[in-house]
Amino acid sequence: MIKMEFEQIIHEFEELADVDFAENMKKFGISYVKSYGLRLPQIRKVAKECGKDHELALRLWNHGYHETYLLATLVEEPEKVNSKQLDGWVHTCYSWDLVDQACINLLRFIPEAIDNIFIWAKSEEEFVKRTSFSLIAVLAVHEKQSNFDKYFEIIKEGSK
């Protein structure tokens, strides 16, 4: 299988672009500066053609489109994410869907992200805080951990 390169991905996204869909996402509270207007299944299909690739993930993230952020979370290699990247990506998130997809696709596989749940829960930034609670939910569903009582206090505090 030949892996898609950055330029091919951008070309594919431009070909699939749907301005009406991008505009419609605002009804769901998803607003962004730059978007191709792609649906998540389209992005996941491209991700399968890319495979895991740290350098590609960094280029996609730096491209700054909503869909390239989402794709970056799908192709990133969790073991190659360092503290600076983790912090930068979490603080870049600006919508609930980006946060939730980052948690599902990537953050749950990064021990440092799990360790940061308690730090992010105290943030005044809406989507940094959401990352904390979304990650707890993702871990509960996907990791089937039984020691969630350690999160009860921050869940209680966050619900106020």
Concise structural overview:
With 160 residues, the chain is mainly alpha-helical. The protein is built from eleven helices and no strands.
Describe the structure.
The chain is mainly α and about 160 residues long. About 65% of the residues lie in helices and about 0% in strands. The chain has helices at about 5-15, 20-25, 40-50, 55-65, 65-75, 85-90, 95-105, 110-115, 115-120, 125-145, 150-160. α4 (about 55-65) packs antiparallel against α5 and α7 packs parallel to α10 (about 125-145). The longest helix has 18 residues, at about 125-145. The protein starts with 5 loop residues before the first helix and ends with a helix.
SSE layout and pairing:
Blueprint: H1 6-16, H2 19-24, H3 40-50, H4 54-63, H5 66-75, H6 83-92, H7 96-105, H8 111-115, H9 117-120, H10 126-143, H11 152-158
How much beta, percentage-wise?
under 5%
Structural class: mainly alpha
Number of contiguous helices: 11
DSSP E strands, number = 0
Name the overall outline.
Answer: globular
Q: Which segments are poorly predicted (pLDDT under 50) over 5 or more consecutive residues? A: none
Mean pLDDT, to the nearest integer, reads 91
Span between N and C termini? 50 Å
Features:
160 residues; mainly alpha; 11 helices
